[in-house]
Protein: PIG-L family deacetylase
Amino acid sequence: MAEQLAPMPEDWQRALAVVAHPDDLEYGCAAAVAQWTDSGREVAYVLATRGEAGIDSLEPAISGPLREAEQRASAEVVGVGSVEFLGHRDGVIEYGPALRRDIAAAIRRHRPELVITLNHRDTWGGTYRNTPDHVAVGRAALDAAADAGNRWIFPELGAEGLVPWDGVRWVAVFGSDRPTHAVDAEPGLERGIRSLLAHRTYVEALTEEDPEQYCRNLLTEGVRHSADRFGGRPAVTFELFPC
Structure:
């Protein structure tokens, strides 16, 4: 029998999701976000870029504002009202102090107990190559969760009124091939599907399939894949790092 996944912790009130691009959270994680916001928890999104290099047929100057608008609409579907963009350049995000500083600043602003990010490893399941943007932002989010609480790292943030926050208790990595915890996907799945569908321009550029059918098939198959490790329930999975 496959090793069972533990339920995600529930004794928290605020979460901050930090990813590279519009749509990163909508490929499954948004179903968990919908359930969390339904329960009265606060979730905010921070995106390193506007996804301006993500659609080959659209120039970045057109694609960036369009994808930003779609991300805000997508977040609203699952009860997220705070969406911030850090302004890093899509496709060439660099891991380093500048990125860590920006994410640490966001953590100090939002003061989350839970930080969520996307797979930071070089591959998806040891098979498909991950993108450098995902790797850089995922690694930086893990590091920034500690940076945010140390007044001697990025001391200029304190001068800007962003006092240290050492209240991050966990970093949850979505899309990991080493999951440890899960959330029942069923209560939030329909809104998760609509949240991905809100990225219509991007989805239509990806597939010739009907956009709604594409979103429904992809997300339903994804959460069912982990059901055997979560008591038979469709699941959004995370690798949880205590802080």
